[in-house]
């Protein structure tokens, strides 16, 4: 099969496209033919070696954790899926070795769920990691409700945009920070837009003079410290980027319960993934460079087997 791998840590220059061994099929796994694989900042960071102190790495590594595709074969113990099923998966493993930048991917059955019927392959591939993170932040950690005023830092990003939609769907008043060029996008997903900058607190108070009851930091780079000026006693705070006293750090975690809920929300029209650009699998290095350079507007950068 064709796939992308790297044999040493580094940037996009270490990626190699070529023939790879087909994955093995264990009793409780499924072989999925990749129709789309979203690129995430975590792929780039781990590839650069930033996870070396807390994750084992077995070279060569096939990067990627987000997958949408078609079931080709199922293990002897799998009854939940059958060949031909359209599925999505968050394939994270504690050992960096097997990923989704490949034509065929072996996935433990508990990491899979059915693909949203109304989603394109690219949209479906962009849902698992970002959606799991956003759901754990907004629903499971902060328990946002219609009584809340929520500030989303980085509301136009992959996680931030889904967190915004989840908070809006809960009935909360949502304020979302983004760059100047992404203000209209933030409005389109239901939030009150504000711009990045040192005057974030002042901008927030124009919409919420009394402050906010919850903050979701999807931006990092110290933006949370500035935003804490609009917190009030009892404000709940979580971050996917920074930690600190009173801040709950949230990461994606494989959870079929949440994947099922995300699919339901996507099919109801309450949650949508924006795809910024599609790249052929062979052009994974170019796609990673585009992600780092932020060459495209809001949305996911997604790999597909080929671009027609």
From TrEMBL:
<dbReference type="Pfam" id="PF08240">
    <property type="entry name" value="ADH_N"/>
</dbReference>
<dbReference type="InterPro" id="IPR020843">
    <property type="entry name" value="ER"/>
</dbReference>
<dbReference type="InterPro" id="IPR013149">
    <property type="entry name" value="ADH-like_C"/>
</dbReference>
<dbReference type="Pfam" id="PF00107">
    <property type="entry name" value="ADH_zinc_N"/>
</dbReference>
<protein>
    <submittedName>
        <fullName>NADP-dependent oxidoreductase</fullName>
    </submittedName>
</protein>
<keyword id="KW-0521">NADP</keyword>
<feature type="domain" description="Enoyl reductase (ER)">
    <location>
        <begin position="10"/>
        <end position="303"/>
    </location>
</feature>
<dbReference type="GO" id="GO:0016491">
    <property type="term" value="F:oxidoreductase activity"/>
</dbReference>
<dbReference type="InterPro" id="IPR036291">
    <property type="entry name" value="NAD(P)-bd_dom_sf"/>
</dbReference>
<dbReference type="InterPro" id="IPR051603">
    <property type="entry name" value="Zinc-ADH_QOR/CCCR"/>
</dbReference>
<dbReference type="InterPro" id="IPR011032">
    <property type="entry name" value="GroES-like_sf"/>
</dbReference>
<dbReference type="InterPro" id="IPR013154">
    <property type="entry name" value="ADH-like_N"/>
</dbReference>
């Amino acid at each position: 099969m064709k796939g992308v791998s790297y044999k040493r840590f580094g940037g996009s220059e270490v990626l190699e496209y070529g023939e790879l061994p087909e994955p093995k099929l264990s009793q409780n796994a499924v072989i999925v033919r990749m129709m789309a694989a979203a690129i995430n900042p975590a792929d780039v960071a781990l590839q650069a070696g930033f996870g070396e102190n807390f994750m084992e790495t077995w070279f060569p590594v096939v990067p990627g954790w987000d997958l949408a595709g078609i079931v080709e074969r199922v293990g002897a113990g799998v009854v939940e899926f059958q060949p031909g099923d359209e599925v999505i998966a968050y394939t994270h493993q504690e050992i960096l070795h097997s990923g989704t930048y490949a034509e065929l991917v072996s996935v433990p059955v508990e990491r899979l769920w059915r693909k949203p019927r109304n989603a394109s392959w690219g949209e479906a591939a962009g849902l698992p990691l970002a959606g799991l993170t956003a759901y754990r932040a907004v629903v499971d950690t902060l328990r946002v409700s219609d009584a809340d005023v929520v500030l989303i830092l980085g509301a136009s990003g992959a996680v931030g945009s889904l967190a915004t939609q989840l908070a809006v769907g809960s009935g909360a008043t949502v304020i979302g920070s983004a760059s100047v060029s992404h203000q209209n996008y933030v409005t389109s997903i239901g939030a009150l837009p504000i711009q990045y900058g040192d005057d974030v607190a002042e901008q927030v108070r124009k919409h919420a003079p009394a402050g906010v009851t919850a903050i979701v930091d999807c931006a990092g780079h110290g933006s949370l410290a500035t935003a804490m000026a609009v917190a009030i006693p009892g404000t709940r705070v979580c971050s996917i980027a920074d930690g600190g006293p009173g801040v709950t750090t949230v990461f994606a975690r494989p959870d079929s319960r949440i994947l099922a809920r995300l699919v339901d929300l996507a099919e109801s029209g309450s949650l949508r993934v924006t795809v910024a650009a599609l790249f052929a699998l062979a052009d994974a290095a170019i796609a990673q460079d585009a992600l780092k350079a932020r060459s495209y507007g809001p949305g996911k950068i997604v790999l597909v087997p080929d671009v027609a």
